[in-house]
Each structure stands twice: as structure tokens, then as C-alpha cells.
């Protein structure tokens, strides 16, 4: 499905994009990968890090539909990753978030339909479920635009919903590591907070698998372990400060929830289990996903209640330590 294909990635220089490009090149033999983003500096750095002639870089903004349509000509598959994703930034700049995350997504849809792209994959977030902040609201609108787009041509559009990926730009893990190394307190907003967490390699592996298997019109939901944020802080304190630093609560931020949800209670009746991920089929929509494909394998819905970061027992300290150690976050020399 990906072999010999031209793959266009909006936001390909970000955390997800760089891992996606590495895995595509290592395992899937694409013909070309075209990366579309605004910042020249990040593109130059990435070209240095991945000097593969199959990878091309194009400067452009997802808000600019004509540039996007021109740049994505000949693409077989689009991964739409570009977004403004920091909750406080989106809260403070709502119109900027709307233009990039909603209008930008509609531009990607129209460019894909114009260019007869075979498949478009949109990466959404747990914050899109029952959204409480503007970032989540824009990702929820993005999901709806993507699902609806299945009506207008032969392009198959699919959403992937994921929780936090360990160590991505702006996540709590680099912050805790920096604080622990500086010997200052580790700041958590609320000690009750839980979040879904997954390693970047695993999330991207699942993203590629889901893309190959999806029919169009579904929301694929990554099954992710969850943990308490204070347990992550405790691991850094133990491992990097030998217990000398402390956790300091600084109060919940505007738009922040105590836990995140990947499948809402309203979606439970349409949610099926495929093994590595859940699939939410569109209830009575004109989208193309066939209920039989997933319904035959799974005759009854997979969940009885919403799937949130308190759904399963949280990862314990030893499991969190192992995850962080495996990815080098506890290495003092890095
Ligand atoms: N990180 C997570 O844990 C997580 C979890 C769930 C879902 N997601 C979703 O996954 C996607 C990727 O996240 P990430 O962590 O990789 O984000 P990131 O590291 O912040 O990367 C964002 C990328 O988008 C580009 N971009 C931003 N605005 C753009 C615009 N207007 N036009 C074109 N490119 C633009 C950025 O490059 P320039 O700034 O140079 O343009 C960068 O390449 C996002 O859609 C996010 O909502 C992330």
C-alpha cells in the first residue's frame, strides 16, 4: 500500500512527522516523501538529519489552498499532521488555531479531492472528545470535516485519534527532565491528573498499520496505556535527583481536564475492537466505511462505558521507569 507511493506529509518536520518519515523510509519503500511546512530552519535541519534523496521539502502553509493544491499534485497518500497543538497557545490565539486547524484541514481535503489522492489520514487527539478547550474544539471540527469529505469523490479519508506521545514537542516529559536536571521542583498542575501515554515508535507504527487497514470514514482510536502525571514526576525525581527534588502543584490551567477521553460514551455503541486499536464507525452517515468489515469480526461493540485515561489501572512506577529508560529520557548524559 505504501511501497512505491508518493506520500505527502503536512507538518512533516514535527515530532510525529520525523518519526513517520524514518519508519516509512526504513520499512515501506516509498517512491517519494514530500514534506510541507512553513519553517525553513526545521526543514534544513531535517534534511541534514535524513539525507535521503527520496525526501523532498516544500515550504508552504496549510492555510494557503492554492499552494497546497499545487504542492500535493501526484500524491497517493496524504498524512495531515500540521496543527497548532499547544492548549494555552490556542486559547490565547483562537482565530490562529481556527485558521490552521480547521480551515487548513478543509484546504487539505479540497486539495486531495482536486488531485485524486487515494487516501488522506488526519491525526486527531483525545482533546477532540467532549472538547473543553479551543485546541480540542478545532480538532473535533477537523474530524467532522474529514469524515464528511468521504462523500465527495473517490478519496478515502480517515481519522486517527491518539493520546499523548512520549517526548513530543512541548510535552511534560522534556519539562520534567529539564526541571530534574536543574534541581528545581517538578511542577504538576493537579496531582489527580491522568493521561494516555505511548512511545513515539509504537504510535507511529500503529498509525501506519491503521492507514493500511482503514477503509475511509472511520475514526481509528489507538489503545494506549495511561498513567498518573505525578508518577512520571516521581520517576524523574527518583532517577535523576536521587529523591532530592519535590513535586509542586501549580493549579489546573484554563482548558485543562483531569483526565482525557479517547472514546466518548456517545460513541460507545459504534465502537469495535480490532486488536491493536478501536474503530468508531460513522453512525448512519454517508461515509464509506462498511459496517460488515468490522461488524463481522466483532459482532458486539467493544466498550460498555467511555474509554478514558482512568479506564484501566494506570501504569505503575516500574513500567513508567522502563518506558522512559528505553527511550533514553533517564540517561543523564543526553
Ligand atoms: N504530540 C502528541 O502527543 C499528539 C497527540 C495526539 C495528536 N497529535 C496531533 O498530531 C499532529 C502532529 O503533532 P506533533 O506533536 O508532531 O506537532 P509538532 O511537533 O508541533 O509539529 C507540527 C508541525 O506542523 C507544522 N505546521 C504548523 N502550522 C502549520 C501551517 N500553518 N502550515 C503548514 N505546516 C504547519 C510545523 O512546522 P512549521 O511550524 O515550520 O510550519 C510542524 O512541522 C498534530 O495534528 C497534533 O494535533 C499530537
Task: Let me know the CATH homologous superfamily of the domain at 6-163 and 199-224 and 261-304.
Answer: NAD(P)-binding Rossmann-like Domain
Q: Which hetero compounds are present in the coordinates? A: NADP nicotinamide-adenine-dinucleotide phosphate
Distance between the termini: 37 Å
Q: Name the helix and strand elements from N-terminus to C-terminus, one letter apiece.
A: EHEHEHEHHEHEEHEEHEEHEEEEHEH
| Residue share in helix | 25-40%
CATH class of the domain at 6-163 and 199-224 and 261-304: Alpha Beta
Shape: globular
CATH fold-type name of the domain at 6-163 and 199-224 and 261-304: Rossmann fold
Low-confidence stretches: 285-291
Q: How many strands?
A: 16
Q: Structural class given helices, strands, pairing?
A: alpha/beta
Do you know the CATH architecture of the domain at 6-163 and 199-224 and 261-304? 3-Layer(aba) Sandwich
Mean pLDDT: 92
| Biggest sheet statistics | 9 strands, mixed
Task: Tell me the β content.
Answer: 15-25%
Which secondary structure elements does this structure contain, and how are they paired or packed?
Layout: E1 6-10, H1 15-27, E2 32-37, H2 40-49, E3 55-59, H3 65-71, E4 77-80, H4 87-92, H5 94-114, E5 119-125, H6 134-148, E6 156-162, E7 164-165, H7 172-182, E8 186-188, E9 194-198, H8 200-213, E10 219-222, E11 226-228, H9 229-241, E12 247-249, E13 261-263, E14 271-273, E15 277-280, H10 291-297, E16 307-308, H11 317-326
Parallel strand pairs: 1-2, 1-4, 2-3, 4-5, 5-6, 6-10, 7-9, 8-12
Antiparallel strand pairs: 9-11, 10-15, 13-16, 14-15
Helix pairs in contact: 1-8, 3-5, 5-6, 7-9
The protein binds NADP nicotinamide-adenine-dinucleotide phosphate.
Amino acid at each position: 500500500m505504501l511501497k512505491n507511493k508518493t506520500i505527502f506529509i503536512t507538518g512533516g518536520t514535527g515530532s510525529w512527522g520525523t518519526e513517520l518519515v524514518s519508519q516509512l523510509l526504513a520499512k515501506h519503500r516509498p517512491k517519494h516523501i514530500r514534506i510541507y511546512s512553513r519553517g525553513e530552519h526545521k526543514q534544513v535541519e531535517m534534511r541534514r538529519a535524513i539525507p535521503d534523496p527520496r525526501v523532498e521539502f516544500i515550504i508552504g502553509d496549510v492555510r494557503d489552498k492554492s499552494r497546497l493544491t499545487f504542492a500535493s499534485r501526484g500524491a497517493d497518500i496524504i498524512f495531515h499532521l500540521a496543527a497548532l497543538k499547544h492548549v494555552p497557545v490556542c486559547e490565547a490565539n483562537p482565530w490562529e488555531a481556527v485558521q490552521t486547524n480547521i480551515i487548513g484541514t478543509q484546504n487539505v481535503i479540497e486539495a486531495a479531492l482536486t488531485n485524486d489522492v487515494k487516501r488522506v489520514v488526519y491525526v486527531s487527539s483525545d482533546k477532540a472528545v467532549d472538547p473543553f478547550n479551543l485546541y480540542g474544539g478545532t480538532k473535533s471540527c477537523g474530524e467532522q470535516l474529514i469524515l464528511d469529505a468521504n462523500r465527495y469523490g473517490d478519496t478515502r479519508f480517515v481519522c486517527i485519534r491518539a493520546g499523548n506521545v512520549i517526548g513530543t514537542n512541548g510535552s511534560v516529559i522534556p519539562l520534567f527532565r529539564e526541571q530534574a536536571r536543574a534541581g528545581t521542583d517538578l511542577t504538576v498542575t493537579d496531582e489527580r491528573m491522568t493521561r494516555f501515554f505511548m512511545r513515539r515508535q509504537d504510535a507511529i507504527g500503529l498509525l501506519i498499520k491503521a492507514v493500511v487497514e482503514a477503509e475511509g470514514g472511520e475514526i481509528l482510536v489507538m489503545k494506549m496505556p495511561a498513567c498518573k502525571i505525578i508518577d512520571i514526576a516521581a520517576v524523574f525525581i527518583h532517577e535523576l535527583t536521587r529523591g532530592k527534588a519535590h513535586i509542586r502543584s501549580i493549579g489546573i490551567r484554563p482548558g485543562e481536564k483531569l483526565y482525557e477521553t479517547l472514546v466518548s460514551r456517545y460513541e460507545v455503541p459504534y465502537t469495535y475492537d480490532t486488536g491493536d486499536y478501536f474503530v468508531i464507525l460513522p453512525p448512519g452517515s454517508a461515509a464509506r466505511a462498511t459496517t460488515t468489515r468490522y461488524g463481522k469480526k466483532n459482532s458486539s461493540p467493544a466498550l460498555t462505558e467511555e474509554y478514558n485515561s482512568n479506564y484501566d489501572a494506570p501504569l505503575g512506577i516500574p513500567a513508567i521507569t522502563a518506558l522512559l529508560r528505553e527511550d533514553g529520557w533517564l540517561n543523564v548524559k543526553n
